[in-house]
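User: Structure tokens for this complex, please. No commentary.
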Amino acid sequence: KNEVEQSPQNLTAQEGEFITINCSYSVGISALHWLQQHPGGGIVSLFMLSSGKKKHGRLIATINIQEKHSSLHITASHPRDSAVYICAVLHYGGSQGNLIFGKGTKLSVKP
Amino acid sequence: GAVVSQHPSWVICKSGTSVKIECRSLDFQATTMFWYRQFPKQSLMLMATSNEGSKATYEQGVEKDKFLINHASLTLSTLTVTSAHPEDSSFYICSAEGTGTDTQYFGPGTRLTVL
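Assistant:
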């Protein structure tokens, strides 16, 4: 079993829909990242969370440390949100900087 | 916010040549930089951890003589793929950790294609 699991693996939505991507992890962590990777490969850091909730524009990220679960929400989705969204956890006790990555969720937003 | 750049963003080279990729923290000092590799349809994998002024720490299975890492300053780390082969074709991504923090900022990545 992977230490970081994302669901769904693939997601197709219509423009305007509310989208949720989930991330569950099985290790103790000190932080969790949400990353966005566009078709060309470029990575953009969206959020780093250690507790609670963060919001940036139409993106909201939440984390529940007790349940070892995080969600990324996109409100009023748009075709330009189409990308792979990757959850990564910073495992405390692991080697420095050793992020454990989920396999990503491929999101396609249709106009 | 903190910005990390990579250069080049893409490179095509012939088999047997060496390729250098730069990772720069533009508006902050980074004691530690990390190099990741991503093969098609796979997740990112940590290759090595680079600390300014000291030798890089390589993950198991990563050849240190093939992937030379230099972190000569607090804002620059370089990854040199020596004697590149087609199987080295991949997407290489760096991240930088701000001095005194555990926040990592990711570079946009470099796509390497070896012919």
